[in-house]
Amino acid sequence: MAALRVILALINKVHEEEALLDSGSQIISMSCEAASTCKITWDPELTINMQSANGQITKTCGLAKNIPFNFGNITIHLQVHVMEQAPYRVLLGRPFDVITESQIANSTERQQFISITDPNSGEHASLSTYFDWGPEQIAAQTQLKKLIEECFHTQNPQFPCDQPIVLAVDTSWRAVGYYMYQQDETEPKKIHYIKFNSLLIDEKQQCYTQPKHELCGLRMALEEETYLLNLVVETDAKYLSEMLNNPGKMPNATINCWVDYIRISFQFTLIHKKGKMFGPNGLSRRKWYSGDPIERRFNDRSEDDGEDLEVIKENPDDKDPLPLETFIDEIDN
């Protein structure tokens, strides 16, 4: 994964802040502390429920409208969601990239620049991004290296075995991340990791709602590992259990098809995990890399555009087929 970068922005013409660039976020946001420093007011009635990278759902404090952000010679007015306990001060998500038509350029000297465009005047600006690497980051890297050195290597699943194979899966707007593990048969506290994987979803799938994302991601992960028996699925999504337990009641044919396919093709126990420390979250946030498929579709054409099947009468003078409402109560009574 690419390192998160920051740029400087003069906010509300009051205070200069380091703004974190994160195209994985669907909003522009800042902490209450940063909003107070920049003397920003917000509307407490305009709140949203926001899902963070660790899967937690939190309600924003409100929306600050048309806040001026100065980047060099360019001023952009942004709609900013204010967060009570944000792990950052200012975060520039995808709306910033769209509004400014931002472009990232990397130099051979390992420098990175972001080019932005004023949507009103068409004026351009190129800004240097940077990554803060201090004692806190060094300590975190040292700890990560230590944990990697001490972790267990991946191994093949054990068959037969009383311990089930656990598939922990998470889906973001960008990708499906999952890993598999199995507890040791003699020492259940000992975990044997089997596989780590991340599957990108394409542009069409990125537009799905979060419940549809989660169901689509579960199917993608299960299809990658069709050999699994004695299976447990771990998820931090609160939608999946009721969707899977209510076949035929989903709002469209595509989702009903996925529910039926999963129920018929796989047998598993579903366990809901708290999102705060759910491991697959990091695997579901990666970006596209060379060699990744541009498009990913299920083979059963369940992701078509919902067009009606073409019906041709052998004799044009024959009566039309019966309308559904005339016999719907007779289909399964």
Question: What would you note in describing this structure?
Answer:
- This protein is of the alpha+beta class.
- The chain folds into 2 domains: 5-131, Cathepsin D, subunit A, domain 1 (Beta Barrel); 150-285, Ribonuclease H-like superfamily/Ribonuclease H (Nucleotidyltransferase, domain 5), CATH 3.30.420.
- It contains 7 helices and 16 strands.
- The protein has helices at 32-37, 94-100, 135-150, 203-206, 210-224, 240-244, 253-265; strands at 5-11, 15-21, 29-31, 49-51, 57-59, 62-71, 74-83, 90-92, 103-106, 112-117, 124-129, 165-171, 175-183, 191-200, 231-235, 268-272.
- It has a 6-stranded mixed β-barrel. The chain has a 5-stranded mixed beta sheet with strand order 14-13-12-15-16.
- Strand 9 and strand 10 form a beta hairpin.
- Helix 5 (210-224) runs parallel beside helix 7 (253-265).
- It is globular, with a radius of gyration of 25 Å.
- The mean pLDDT is 85.
